[in-house]
From TrEMBL:
It comes from Gaetbulibacter jejuensis. Residues 200-385 form the Hflx-type G domain. SUPFAM superfamilies: P-loop containing nucleoside triphosphate hydrolases (SSF52540). This is GTPase HflX. The keyword Cytoplasm applies. Belongs to the TRAFAC class OBG-HflX-like GTPase superfamily. HflX GTPase family.
Length: 406
């Protein structure tokens, strides 16, 4: 049901709003991300529409004038998909689909769809399917009357594809079934985790596409799939890593994103257990991304939701090779100097300085500063290790560069 299909790029338009909380540049950044999500899902963005308003219209998200523009454009250019940069309420989705007469998706839809495409193992598939069913349930009413479900493509993969006639009861039964299935797998996984003994567990966490898997591969010499698309990783990989004789476990897991659908956080609960049960977090950040500070906030918010925000955490600022400050013209008196103009050195003196030792600056791709990285991780893992195995203390001296060749 969740087959990955060859798809030609589907033409889509994006629709976002500019509000008091979300100024023009924020709105642009969000739409950039939405475009990246669309591309990852197999779509091509032909045009973006934005509207300034105090808050989204409760009936149709944007106003009727703007909606006319969108409708005209869609008709003239044979666009099949309109994607809204927020979660639409079931009523909004219905109203808009009636007006536009094309496939209407929101951010949540898109993320769920990418997860469905990317799920490799039956466990990940089951988790995604559960999230999709939960998203679908409140939206069933009248959903298929004006649109044939057979249109396929983005947002249409997954449950429901063969179940146009489904009523809520069937979906509810399915949810119960999927939950039971997940519970069984959870038990097995939890036993597996228990079998790993008392080894120190380190989890890579971070926004999607920041380089977690790349770092995992460099450090553990493994071959986890990494690529320049969102949500390359859905299944958790655990590897034994040894730094200077000190063994520990490193986990690479699913990336986070702004407004990660709650259904997904819920159903990926056990995947996220790897994070919850970790002794040390490596919070990887793509410092070359203009929005990296907001990414950190989103990740922290999700860590908080899964009760993991008080763990020892090393912030790993990755992609320093790609960092570029916006050029600043000192003579242009109209231009105000902002964070976007900071050099990496300046960044280091900001709040990053306050976390001191717990901030690292690396390039996983170019293998820059990896020695620092190994040393910091070694020190931190060692601290935890010797509380668990006090008699092993003498085995692991302070990390020194000379002794360490690998
Ligand atoms: N320039 C640069 N690119 C990097 C660096 N590290 C990773 N990348 C690239 O960033 C992209 C994403 O890398 P991944 O390792 O797949 O990122 P991830 O955090 O595992 O992503 P998800 O699994 O999607 O959450 C890939 O194209 C990598 O080659 C780096 O240090 N510098
Ligand atoms: Mg990954």
């Amino acid at each position: 049901m969740l087959e990955k299909k060859d798809i030609t790029l589907e033409k889509a338009v994006l629709i976002g709003v500019i509000t008091k909380e979300q100024d023009e540049s924020k709105s642009k950044e969000y739409l950039d991300e939405l475009e990246f999500l669309t591309y990852t899902a197999g779509g091509e963005v032909v045009k973006r529409f934005t509207q300034k308003m105090d808050m989204p219209n409760p009936k149709t998200f944007i106003g009727s004038g703007k909606m006319n523009d969108v409708q005209e454009f869609i008709n003239e250019n044979e666009i099949g998909t309109a994607i809204f940069d927020d979660e639409l309420s079931p009523a909004q989705e219905r109203n808009i689909s009636k007006i536009l007469n094309c496939k209407v998706l929101d951010r949540t839809n898109l993320i769920l769809d990418i997860f469905a495409q990317r799920a490799q193992t039956s466990y990940a598939r089951t988790q995604v399917e559960l999230a999709q069913c939960e998203y679908l349930l409140p939206r069933l009413k009248g959903m298929w009357t004006h649109l044939e479900r057979q249109k396929g493509g983005i947002g249409m993969r997954g449950p429901g594809e063969t179940e146009i006639e489904t009523d809520r009861r069937i979906v509810r039964d399915k949810i119960a079934l999927l939950k039971a299935k997940i519970k069984t797998i959870d038990k097995q996984m939890s036993v597996q985790r228990g079998n790993r003994g008392q080894m120190v567990r380190v989890a890579l966490v971070g926004y999607t596409n920041v380089g977690k898997s790349t770092l995992m591969n460099v450090v553990s010499k493994s071959e986890v799939f990494a690529e320049n698309k969102l949500f390359a990783t859905l299944d958790t990989t655990v590897r034994k890593v040894v730094i200077q004789n000190l063994p520990f476990l490193m986990t690479d897991t699913v990336g986070f994103i702004r407004k990660l659908p709650t259904q997904l956080v819920e159903s990926f609960k056990s995947t996220l257990d790897e994070v919850r049960e970790a002794d040390l977090l490596l919070h990887v950040v793509d410092i070359s991304h203009p929005n990296f500070e907001e990414h950190i906030e989103s990740v922290n918010k999700i860590l908080d939701e899964i009760h993991s925000s008080d763990k020892p955490t090393i912030m790993v600022f990755n992609k320093i090779d790609a960092y570029e400050a916006e050029p600043f013209d000192e003579d242009d008196l109209m231009e105000e100097r902002t964070k976007a103009h900071y050099s990496l050195e300046e960044w280091r003196t900001t709040w990053m300085n306050k976390i001191g030792d717990y901030a690292l600056f690396i390039s996983a791709l170019n293998k820059e500063n990896l020695e620092d990285f190994r040393k910091r991780v070694y020190d931190e893992v060692r601290k935890i290790h010797i509380t668990r195995f006090p008699y092993n203390h003498f085995l692991y001296p302070d990390y020194s560069k000379e002794d360490f060749e690998s």
